[in-house]
């Protein structure tokens, strides 16, 4: 019998199992490993059952079977598939599916109070022991199910001792119970009346639920009602008795989404993200595995949860690079979600106003179906987007807002409407240098400048989290207090805006000011309640939000994302700016968007101003096709890293020398990574570039199998890389 352990080992291990355990593939078991005991899963290999090579007498026994629902077959095949694709040990992938081992411990018993026949009934007025407090407890219990003692006391407005006294009297007794299941979303509740366009998109999504595996792109402008449309598919999934999974790029910020969901379905969905407390993770994992959580919304790792009855997957904002997991098991949650849907034979819906080129090409080639929502819902129109040519109308010296944007802000704020300034840069200034000698303040363990955060009074490295106070003297020439801040971050823009509009209520929103769901929803409320006039934020405010009174969006530096050698720089900038622009004018009042740029002729700016997405994508596709870049070719990045530069170099050179050769692929590098040092580790990159049809995994496996790096050097394999740092 083979058991896969959630550890980065080569594969499943062989064990013996007593007949009477009745073990079957998918069962969770406790198995010995060395001196430890580990929880693993009985594994059946996808293709053939490799016979064990060890003699029987060397095999150890599985200790016991856990009382947990087994890991369903499609999930086991998914774990195998992801491991094979990403070239990671299957146990490392299984670990993501088990994620909270405590969830597998037997649940702690819960005891609830219920009334016994000894309790006096409500008419018993003569009973001296029936005090007013005790009477309230009894009447609380009469109106509902058994309650935990603590909850019962709270509900009746009495102290815990009152309940304890009634237990002693024998009026109440404790019974063992299960955690009361949370209210479940109701698929039978009516949603909003859909427009004809929305109906035309929702109907095929609902029909797809009966049709096995399919991929549908739901492509609609910002504010078109895409969420309402896929809510219809979720409702139908619930009615069919299946579970639904919704992946969002940044679940911690999805306050508005959660509120809308609860209003539509009468109950909150299960949530899964990195900020959940351990107990919440454990309960959610169990609720999913037991089929109690009917709808789960989560970040990328939710994809590995053990849904037994998954019927639908939705990937909202499918173009978002946040779906790419960059460390540990490196995978793209959108792509793996499609795989999970295929293995589970269920439909998946990819949702976006700016679909990725990957998805667009899959639609063109007929692999995915597309449904379109061409207009905003109701009377809302798409905002008017204009470029502000910074060469012709530059901002004043040491300022960042050009006259046209200043004028627009003045008239929007003057009219009592809300405005937003977008700059994808946290802090006050991205670079601090010494005016005496030109020295630039750099992170001691990364190839990166320190970013000044003036409000917090610190310099920070955005790559490793290093922080220090601003030094008084230049570390290079010793000059005192000669530092100059170069370039703007959101704090600096806020400073300028405050000087221009001293009475406006201005707020900065970045990942520094929004830590989690609670602060995010408080912000949303302030914005909806019109307690903020001017919002200044990074990409955290760019997505998803619906603020009816927000009519002006100013992009402080529209060119910011275009520099650097990233192959998706144009595509990403277009998507991000389009999203940001989409925040403006979402209700009756029309929206206006100003893009400050030094390159108004750049295809990205042209596409945004003209609204001609198709042409932009066609140009982008042509360039990628010509160069053989994704999605028309395939890439695998290998990052060699370690603290000892010489050893890193030696390993990288060795990889370069032993590079595989072939007609339809090539290896580029090794070269120092743009982030040549990160957290004190030196980094070198190699890139395998192949034609689309090439099966890259065996090539990479053979290649890396032939080198034997020292222990201090790490090789990270990134199939389909999105980051080139
Ligand atoms: P998208 O996801 O495409 O950006 P949303 O689903 O957020 O668009 O819809 C934009 C706004 O319009 C939301 O406030 C939503 O509740 C509202 N809306 C969309 N469709 C309808 C509808 N059929 N009836 C009522 N309100 C709708
Ligand atoms: Zn650093």
Q: How would you explain this protein's 3D organization?
A:
Strand 1 (2-4) and strand 2 (13-14) form a beta hairpin. The chain has 19 helices and 31 strands. It has a seven-stranded parallel beta sheet, with helices on both faces. It has a six-stranded parallel beta sheet with strand order 17-27-26-18-25-24, sandwiched between helices. With 725 residues, the chain is of the alpha/beta class. The structure holds adenosine-5'-diphosphate and zinc ion. Adenosine-5'-diphosphate (ADP) binds next to helix 7.
Look at the structure and give the mean pLDDT. 91
Which strand-content bin applies to the residues? 15-25%
Can you summarize the main beta sheet? 7 strands, parallel
Secondary structure class reads: alpha/beta
* Number of helices in the DSSP assignment: 19
Shape: globular
Rg over CA atoms, rounded to whole Å, is: 29 Å
Order the strands across the largest sheet as they lie in space: 10-11-9-12-15-8-16
Uncertain runs with pLDDT below 50, 5 residues or more? none
Bound molecules: adenosine-5'-diphosphate, zinc ion
Alpha-carbon distance between the termini? 44 Å
Number of strands: 31
Portion of residues in helices?
A: 25-40%
């Amino acid at each position: 019998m083979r058991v896969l352990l959630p550890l980065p080992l080569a594969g499943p291990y062989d064990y013996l199992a007593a007949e009477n355990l009745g073990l079957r593939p998918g069962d969770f078991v406790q198995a010995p490993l060395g001196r430890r005991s580990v929880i693993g899963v009985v594994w059946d290999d996808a293709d053939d059952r490799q016979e064990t090579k060890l003699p029987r007498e060397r095999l150890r026994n599985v200790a016991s079977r856990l009382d947990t629902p087994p890991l369903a077959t499609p999930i086991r095949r998914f774990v195998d598939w992801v491991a094979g694709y990403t070239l990671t040990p299957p146990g490392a992938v299984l670990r993501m599916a088990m994620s909270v081992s405590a969830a597998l411990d037997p649940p702690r018993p819960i005891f609830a109070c219920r009334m016994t026949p000894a309790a006096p009934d409500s008419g018993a007025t003569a009973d001296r022991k029936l005090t007013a407090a005790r009477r309230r407890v009894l009447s609380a219990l009469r109106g509902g199910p058994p309650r935990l003692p603590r909850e019962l006391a709270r509900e009746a407005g009495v102290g815990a001792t009152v309940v304890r006294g009634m237990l002693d009297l024998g009026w109440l007794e404790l019974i063992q119970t299960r955690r009361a299941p949370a209210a479940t979303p109701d698929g039978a509740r009516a949603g909003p009346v859909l427009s004809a366009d929305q109906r035309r998109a929702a109907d095929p999504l609902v029909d797809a639920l009966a049709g096995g595996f399919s991929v549908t792109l739901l492509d609609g402008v910002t504010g078109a009602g895409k969420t309402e449309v896929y809510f219809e598919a979720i409702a139908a999934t619930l009615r069919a008795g299946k579970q639904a999974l919704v992946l969002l790029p940044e679940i911690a910020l999805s306050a508005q989404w959660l509120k809308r969901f609860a209003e539509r379905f009468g109950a909150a969905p299960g949530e899964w993200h990195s900020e959940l407390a351990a107990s919440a993770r454990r309960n959610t994992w169990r609720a999913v595995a037991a089929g109690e959580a009917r709808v789960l919304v989560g970040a990328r790792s939710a994809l590995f949860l053990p849904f037994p009855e998954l019927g639908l997957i939705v990937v909202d904002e499918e173009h978002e690079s946040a779906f790419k997991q960059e460390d540990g098991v490196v995978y793209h949650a959108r792509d793996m979600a499609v795989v999970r849907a295929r293995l589970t034979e269920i439909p998946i819906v990819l949702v976006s106003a700016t679909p990725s080129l990957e998805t667009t090409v899959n639609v063109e080639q007929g692999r995915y179906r597309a449904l379109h929502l061409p207009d905003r819902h109701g009377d809302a129109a798409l905002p008017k987007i204009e470029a502000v040519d910074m060469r012709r109308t530059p901002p004043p010296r040491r300022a960042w807002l050009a006259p046209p944007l200043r004028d627009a802000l003045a008239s929007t704020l003057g009219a009592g409407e809300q405005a937003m300034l977008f700059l994808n840069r946290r802090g006050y200034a991205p670079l601090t240098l010494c005016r005496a000698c030109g020295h630039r303040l750099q992170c001691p363990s990364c190839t990166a400048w320190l970013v000044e955060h003036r409000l917090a009074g610190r310099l920070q490295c955005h790559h490793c989290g290093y922080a220090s106070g601003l030094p008084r003297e230049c570390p290079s020439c010793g000059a005192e207090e000669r530092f100059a801040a170069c370039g703007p971050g959101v704090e600096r823009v806020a400073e300028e805006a405050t000087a221009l509009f001293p009475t406006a209520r201005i707020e900065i929103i970045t990942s520094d000011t929004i830590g989690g769901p609670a602060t995010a929803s408080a912000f949303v409320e302030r914005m909806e309640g019109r307690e903020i006039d001017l919002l200044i934020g990074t990409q955290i405010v760019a997505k998803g939000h619906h603020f009816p009174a927000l009519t002006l969006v100013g992009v402080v530096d529209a060119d910011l994302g275009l520099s650097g050698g990233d192959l998706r720089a144009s595509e990403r900038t277009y998507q991000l700016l389009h999203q940001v622009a989409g925040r403006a004018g979402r209700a009756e009042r029309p929206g206006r968007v100003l893009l400050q740029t030094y390159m108004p002729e750049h295809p990205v700016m042209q596409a945004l101003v003209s609204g001609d997405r198709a042409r932009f994508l066609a140009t982008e596709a042509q360039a990628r096709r010509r160069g053989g870049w994704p999605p028309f070719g395939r890439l695998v990045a290998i990052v060699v890293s370690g603290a000892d530069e010489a050893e890193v170099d030696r390993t990288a050179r060795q990889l370069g020398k032993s590079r595989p050769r072939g007609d339809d692929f090539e290896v580029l590098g090794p070269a120092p990574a743009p982030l040549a040092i990160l957290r004190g580790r030196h980094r070198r990159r190699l890139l395998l570039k192949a034609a689309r049809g090439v099966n890259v995994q065996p090539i990479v496996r053979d290649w890396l199998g032939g080198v034997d790096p020292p222990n201090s050097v790490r090789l990270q394999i990134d199939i389909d890389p999105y980051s080139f740092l």
